[in-house]
Write a structure and sequence with these properties.
Blueprint lengths: L4 H12 L14 E5 L4 E4 L15 H15 L7 E5 L5 H13 L5 E4 L8 H9 L5 E5 L10 H9 L10 E7 L7 H10 L3 H4 L1 H4 L7 E5 L4 H15 L5 H15 L4 H14 L7
Parallel strand pairs: 1-4, 3-6, 3-7, 4-5, 5-6
Antiparallel strand pairs: 1-2
Helix pairs in contact: 2-3, 9-10, 9-11
Length: about 280
């Protein structure tokens, strides 16, 4: 064992300093998840998603996001997109379904970035920038509290700093909040600030940096029933319209509301009761 203090210090620094990320093999998959400690892009052989045709009641958002993604995949100008609104209405499902639909026509990769890993986004962008592939960077359930500094890292994606956002990267984020932070916190900071108009501008304006705002609202009963009927027809579950309506409405009553997620949860129960196995 060496007693040279300089060598011991060098060894210690080597142990705590993460090894540089090897050049990712982006041909290994169409989807990846970004991890830190150590930095790595984990390929996802099979993405958990539903077919785009099964997403009912969000036609405008679907068509807009498909068009934007197709433009981007072809190397044309495209916007970052914020999908915001009601819980369980298919925001993250739409991002994954749109990627699959566009990728079937024009190659484009998707990389999922967790909100808590936003501080590492600069290192991720450096690797994506060097690739010849095009990437949809996907951040699900994005929101910030009043003392959360992660929003500053998000600007690296939206504004790109001095280098600019990589031409081959576009950001799609989902959030229950249109302005990415609770309204009561926005109002509180405005009311206690010396300059109320400027107090929250930096945080609130984050949403303004997304070129596309796609709103998701609670679904109607007709859309809710149409979602379930679509699942039944696709997966071979036979049930009359009257029985489906009665059972589905009773299910939504026990959940206190209806959404795409509630429709899927009812369908899982229905398929199980009918002895129908679903593809894994």
């Amino acid at each position: 064992m060496t007693t040279d203090p300089l060598i011991r210090i060098a060894d210690a620094l080597e142990r705590i300093s993460p090894a540089p990320l090897a050049t990712p093999d982006f041909d290994a998959a169409d989807a990846f998840v970004w991890h830190v400690d150590p930095d790595r892009l984990e390929p996802v052989p099979r993405v958990n998603r539903v077919d785009i045709d099964l997403l009912i009641g969000i036609d405008r958002a679907r068509d807009t996001l498909v068009a934007n993604t197709a433009q981007f995949a072809r190397g044309l100008p495209a916007n970052n997109a914020l999908l915001w609104g009601a819980r369980g209405m298919g925001k993250s499902s739409l991002v994954k379904a749109v990627h699959a639909a566009v990728n079937a026509q024009t190659p484009v990769k998707i990389v999922e970035l967790q909100r808590e890993d936003l501080p590492s986004v600069g290192r991720l962008l450096a690797h994506l920038r060097e690739s010849s592939h095009r990437f949809v960077l996907f951040c699900d359930d994005l929101s910030f509290s009043h003392d959360d500094q992660h929003y500053k890292s998000l600007k690296a994606v939206l504004d790109g700093g001095i280098e600019g956002r990589p031409e081959n990267v576009v950001l799609y984020a989902t959030s229950n909040r249109r302005h990415l932070m609770p309204r009561d916190m926005i109002e509180n900071e405005r009311s206690t600030a010396i300059s109320p108009s400027e107090a929250t501008e930096e945080k609130v304006s984050l949403s303004d940096r997304f070129g596309l705002w796609l709103g998701f609202h609670p679904c109607s009963q007709d859309d809710y029933l149409a979602m379930i009927r679509g699942y039944c027809d696709t997966h071979g579950v036979t049930i009359s319209d009257d029985d489906l309506r009665a059972e589905a409405i009773e299910w939504q009553a026990t959940r206190g509301g209806r959404s795409g997620r509630v429709a899927w949860q009812f369908f899982l129960d229905l398929a199980g009761r009918h002895g129908v196995k679903l593809p894994q």
